[in-house]
Design brief:
- The protein has helices spanning 5-15, 32-35, 47-60, 78-88, 110-118, 133-140, 152-156, 160-166, 174-192, 196-213, 241-246, 251-262; strands at 23-27, 65-70, 92-96, 124-127, 147-149, 270-271, 287-288.
- Helices cover 43% and strands 9% of the residues.
- The strands form two sheets. Strands 1-2-3-4-5 form a five-stranded parallel beta sheet, covered by helices on one side. Strands 6-7 form a two-stranded antiparallel ribbon.
- With 289 residues, the protein is of the alpha/beta class.
- The chain contains twelve helices and seven strands.
C-alpha cells in the first residue's frame, strides 16, 4: 500500500537491500481504513497520483515492479488503466475481477479479466475466487493470462498450493491443520519474540488468520466439490471435536485454538476481528483473555 510517491519511493529504497523476487503495489484493497486515506483501490481513479507512484517505484527499484488492481471503484476502468501502468513502469499487472464497491460479494468477472488481458502486450495475472486446483486449472487454460494469483483461498486453506501442484483434493485432518497453526505461531514468536508483547502480537495475527481459516469446509463433509470461496456454511459438527472447534465463527473459540499453541491469553488481552469481507460480515464480537 502507499498513497503518495515520496512514501513509496522511500519504502522502495529500503526494500532494495532485501532479498525479494519482486515488489508489488496493492491498488486493489477495498477496506475503508485505506481507501479513505487515498490508498489501495482509491488510487484507481487518481491517475496523476498513481502515475507518480508507479514511475518513482520503477525508477528506484532494480527488481521487477508489479501492480495489483480491481476492475474499478464503481465503474470499470481496468481496460484503459492497465496499458498506462505498463507505460509508467510496471512490468506486470494483476487484475482482481471485482470493483471496490463489490468488495468480496458476487462472483469475480473472469470474462472481463480475460478481455483486459487480451488487450495487453505484457504479463497479466488473473485473481478472484480461486479456491481449488480446479479453479486454478480452468483459469490457467486461458492463453491471455500469464498465471493466476490466489488471495482469500490461501488464507482459508493454505494447503491450496499443494492441491494445485498435485491436482488433488486434500481431505486434511484437524490434527494436520493444527500443526500448520502451530508452525504459524512458531514463526510469529521467532519474529516478534517470546516475551509478553511478542506472544500478544503473534496471537493477534493468528486470530486474524483464524477468522479466515474457520471458513474452510472439510472435503469429506462437502456434498459437492469444490467449495466456493464465498460459500457460507450452516453450523455443522466435524468428524472430531477439534474439527468442530475449527469451524466455529465465534472469536472466543479462535482464542481457545490460539491457547493450544501459545498458552493462556493474558487477562487484559482483547481481540475484535478487523478484516471481514461483506459476504461474511457478522455482528461484531470480541474475544477476551
Amino acid at each position: 500500500w502507499g498513497g503518495f510517491a515520496d512514501e513509496v519511493g522511500r519504502a522502495c529504497e529500503l526494500i532494495q537491500g532485501l532479498d525479494v523476487d519482486f515488489v508489488d503495489l496493492n491498488c486493489g484493497c477495498p477496506i475503508d481504513l485505506l481507501f479513505d486515506k487515498g490508498m489501495g483501490s482509491a488510487l484507481l481513479e487518481r491517475r496523476p497520483r498513481l502515475r507518480d507512484i508507479v514511475q518513482v517505484a520503477a525508477a528506484v527499484l532494480d527488481k521487477p515492479f508489479t501492480v495489483k488492481i480491481r476492475t474499478g471503484i464503481t465503474r470499470r476502468v481496468a481496460d484503459t488503466l492497465m496499458p498506462l501502468l505498463h507505460q509508467w513502469g510496471a512490468c506486470a499487472v494483476t487484475l482482481h475481477g471485482r470493483s471496490r464497491q463489490m468488495r468480496y460479494t458476487k462472483i469475480a468477472d473472469w470474462d472481463y479479466i480475460s478481455e483486459c488481458a487480451r488487450g495487453c502486450s505484457f504479463p497479466v495475472i488473473g485473481n478472484g475466487d480461486v479456491m481449488s486446483w480446479r479453479d486454478a486449472e480452468r483459469h490457467l487454460a486461458d492463453p491471455a493470462l500469464a498465471t493466476v494469483m490466489v488471495g482469500r483461498g490461501a488464507l482459508i486453506k493454505p494447503w491450496i498450493f499443494t492441491e494445485i501442484k498435485e491436482k488433488r483434493d486434500w481431505d486434511i485432518s484437524s490434527g494436520e491443520r493444527l500443526e500448520i497453526i502451530r508452525k504459524f505461531a512458531n514463526y510469529g514468536l521467532e519474529h516478534w519474540g517470546s516475551d509478553k508483547q511478542g506472544v500478544a502480537t503473534t496471537r493477534k495475527f493468528l486470530l486474524e488468520w483464524l477468522s479466515f481459516l474457520c471458513r474452510y469446509i472439510p472435503v469429506g463433509l462437502l456434498e459437492v466439490l469444490p467449495q466456493h470461496v464465498n460459500l457460507r456454511p450452516m453450523p455443522y459438527y466435524g468428524r472430531d471435536d477439534l474439527e468442530t472447534l475449527m469451524a466455529s465463527s465465534d472469536p472466543a473459540d479462535w482464542l481457545r485454538i490460539s491457547e493450544m499453541v501459545l498458552g493462556p491469553a493474558e487477562p487484559e488481552f482483547a481481540f475484535t476481528p478487523k478484516h471481514k469481507s461483506n459476504s461474511y460480515a457478522t455482528e461484531e464480537s470480541t474475544a477476551r483473555g
